[in-house]
Design goal:
Elements: H1 5-82, H2 84-136, H3 141-156
Helix pairs in contact: 1-2, 2-3
Length: about 160
């Protein structure tokens, strides 16, 4: 088997030319798109971490509010017991109403905070996802809209 040097040199030149053209016109844009996608994914991961940290803080605050409520409730009950010799029925009823109101307020505040955090996270994920999907599907708007609708339905669950 003979190696034709002229054909080999021509093939090497063709390969180098095709490689140069690919890198010049396609390679850089693909690299930039991949880097942009990686950055967007990092932002999404950061948003998830912030959301998880916020949920932990909200749970801690909820726990503290309940503990405060318990301390306050116990204080009111103790005061009611000390005054029970004179006005037992009236003071106990008042303390129970106050404790229930404080518990309701603490629960309402914790629920409101949790709802706001969930809404904030969902909005953040929607915005981030919209940017990522828009970058991925810039040329195919119909596919982009279909994907976004599916994501919104997924997060709404």
């Amino acid at each position: 088997m003979e190696i034709n040097v002229g054909v080999l040199v021509a093939q090497l030149i063709n390969f180098a030319l095709i490689l140069f053209l690919f890198k010049k016109f396609v390679g850089d844009s693909i690299t930039k798109a991949l880097l942009a996608r990686r950055a967007e994914l990092a932002k999404a991961e950061d948003a998830t971490k912030v959301y998880e940290e916020t949920l932990v803080k909200a749970a801690e605050e909820k726990k503290l509010l309940i503990e405060e409520w318990l301390v306050h409730k116990n204080k009111l009950i103790e005061e009611a017991k000390q005054a029970a010799t004179q006005k037992a029925d009236g003071i106990i009823a008042s303390a129970e109403k106050s404790a229930a109101r404080i518990a309701s307020q603490a629960e309402d505040k914790a629920t409101k905070l949790e709802t706001e955090l969930k809404k904030w996270f969902v909005d953040g994920v929607k915005k981030t996802t919209h940017v990522v999907v828009k970058k991925l599907f810039e040329k195919n708007v119909a596919l982009q809209e279909k994907y976004l609708d599916e994501l919104v339905q997924e997060f709404a669950k």
